[in-house]
Amino acid sequence: MAYLDHAATTPMLPEAAEALTAQLGVTGNASSLHASGRRARRTVEEARETLADALGARPSEVVFTSGGTEADNLAVKGLYWSRRDAEPARTRVLASPVEHHAVLDVVHWLAEHEGATVEYLPVDTHGRVHPDALRKAIARNPDDVALATVMWANNEIGTIMPIRELAEVAAEFGVPLHSDAVQAFGQVPVDFAASGLAAMTVSGHKIGGPYGIGALLLGRDQSPVPVLHGGGQERHVRSGTLDVPAIASFAVAGRLAAEQHAWFAREIGALRDSLVDAVRTAVPDAILGGDPEPGGRLPANAHFTFPGCEGDSLLLLLDAQGIECSTGSACTAGVAQPSHVLLATGTDPDLARGTLRFSLGHTSTQADVEAVARAIGPAVERARAAGLT
Amino acid sequence: MTDTAQPSRPLRVLAAMSGGVDSAVAAARAAEAGHDVTGVHLALSANPQSFRTGARGCCTIEDSRDARRAADVIGIPFYVWDLADRFREDVVEDFVAEYEAGRTPNPCLRCNEKIKFAALLDKALALGFDAVCTGHYAQVIVREDGTRELHRASDMAKDQSYVLGVLDDRQLAHAMFPLGDTVTTKDEIRAEAERRGLAVAKKPDSHDICFIADGDTQGFLARRLGKAEGDIVDESGAKVGSHEGAYGFTVGQRKGLRIGTPAPDGKPRYVLDISPVDNTVTVGPASALDVSALTAIKPRWCGAAPSGPGTYTAQLRAHGGETEVTAELVDGSLEVSFTEPVRGVAPGQAIVLYDGTRVVGSATIASTVRVKEATPAG
């Protein structure tokens, strides 16, 4: 079995699993005042400090959520509402067109239901937003911008965005910039304070922590309107009883992700490079997606387009040989759609159907790469014969 | 011996799973027989996001999830393939065009011919599969010499060989119908599904036409073809009523004619003829529906085309009975005469010829010869 879909989810780190199980038998609501509550709160606050440290943030800037999707919703909807409430003219939302659906569908929703005008920032052929493009978009009318949102690194093609430069531009105009850093955390240095972002999303299960936990890093001067109302936990921004075991485990994974990203970039990056070489050797006309420069892409991402193939066919053929990867794009009722990311980079829609994303992680080995090297050539040949339906 | 009983070698099988109980049990049986089975759900609807209440075994997200769940329980890989474009071109548009031309198509048959055992089968073969498996009730019997025959299901009451009669040798060579060789009532299939832990065991049967969600064929055609008011006339040509589109009728139809004036003899009247050219529907007594012969086009044979006239039993519509005929291929068309007159033969439907339980071939009914020709007007 070659598991090469770590961008979907990556195996839990043993240390994180240990932290999780250690807490599962412990009783305590972190909002309670008695001893059990205090113990739970201590666990949560220590985890918050650990995670803040790992991400270059202050503990008070860490807002725990149920995962990346919720954090994205809270940031984009919440900041839109608070900015519009303060100044009704601020209804323009600037977003990159290559965002994950957890952002893309949120801005669509704001346009349909909340009177937002969504403007997609232009990207280059690698799917990258340039600071000038953001400047131009804001400068058109700085007074009507509610917020901007640009992911730290793309989940499909791995392109890394110039977040710091983008945040500088946004800051010039006083526009809050949110970034979904779910894919970036653990692979490249992610420092919230240094980035200049107003808000940033991270997720537990993408870094070897548990499912169902994530966080929104939220600058202290930001007060988004909550999506979830209730008991007033998490700065009154995100109500709901805190998941103490998941938070404790997430913090352990977060600490390791921050400590090991240099190792990860070097070791996993080298494996990724050999996977790219192997695929190109077996299928010379395969097109590498995203930025070909190693510094411009996530070290664990290898995205390919295979002309004349349907990604789904390749997936089926590789799956039958124990190689697990992804087409990289989202599904509707299980039906593959041409990737919005590739379409945004100007890829021909027929070509955009023939994609595969191999994403490596902390358990990847040379044997995984060799399995792909053996299987990809015949699989592509077969998928080409089956053609595009 | 059929495919599924003790396979001589395991095949790579692609099981088409609609989300209904039959195709789920078929896939489970194929897997249990030792084949290497992969499940696939065909997304055929232009709008796959629609949920539909009382799912009828096709096209909805709910059906896709049911199929996936069944595949998980069986323990086979599962994929959804988007064949919506092909389905729209080859089945839905054909359906509309046939009605527009005054004929009565059978879209399930067309789907088997053009989608399940063409688009799907071709892709499956290209990807290295040996066969496509469906939940149809019919049998593939392999003779000693290796030739394959399509037969009615063991249980005649459940037989679906009629909608598979369009399959040719090549298609048949890669077809697998694990439900066809056992005498099973629907209750028994449901019990088997239950026993296998398949949650679709209690799902309602599929029926109607999968791409017409509300079951209102007339409404669907009216939306597609627009209203075209015309006359309903009797055999003498006298106007007895009006309609909003000749395409909405089927030869032999009795209900929904909304004729104001009763027939002289007070007996019910039936649609005898649909003329799209002048948008006229002719009605008359049941006796005028009796047909003694017909011509059918686009014949397809399971095996070699017969030379010279032959005697067969024929089936003229899904769920229809059998009738004895002699048939002969003349200039590429099938000329069929009935031993006893038959009633209610609709152009556009398929005639499937049988030799005992064996499917010999099929063709599309183009025209009929009435025992009692309608009296010419005037």
Strand content of chain B: 25-35%
Percent of residues in helices of chain A comes to 40-55%
Helical content class of chain B: 10-25%
- The CA-CA distance between the termini of chain A, in Å, is 29 Å
CATH class of the largest domain in chain A: Alpha Beta
Low-confidence stretches of chain A: none
From the alpha carbons, calculate the radius of gyration of chain A and give it in angstroms: 21 Å
The major pleated sheet of chain B works out as: 6 strands, antiparallel, barrel
Q: Tell me the distance between the termini of chain B.
A: 61 Å
CATH architecture of the largest domain in chain A: 3-Layer(aba) Sandwich
Largest sheet of chain A: 7 strands, mixed
Individual helix count of chain B: 7
CATH topology category name of the largest domain in chain B:
Rossmann fold
Q: What's the oligomerization state? A: heterodimer
Structural class of chain A: alpha/beta
> Under the CATH scheme, which class of the largest domain in chain B?
Alpha Beta
Count the E strands of chain B: 17
Textual characterization of the structure:
- The complex is a heterodimer of chains A (389) and B (378).
- Chain A is built from eleven helices and 14 strands.
- With 389 residues, chain A is of the alpha/beta class.
- In chain A, α8 packs across α11 and α9 (311-319) crosses α11 (366-386).
- Chain A is globular.
- Chain A starts with a strand and ends with a helix.
- Chain B contains seven helices and 17 strands.
- Chain B has helices at residues 21-32, 61-74, 84-100, 107-126, 169-173, 186-195, 217-225; strands at residues 12-16, 36-43, 78-82, 131-133, 138-142, 148-152, 175-176, 230-233, 239-243, 270-275, 280-284, 290-301, 310-315, 322-330, 333-343, 350-355, 358-370.
- In chain B, a hairpin with a 6-residue loop joins β13 and β14.
- Chain B is globular and about 65 Å long.
- At the A-B interface, α9, β12, β13 and α11 of A face β2, α2, β3, α3 and α4 of B.
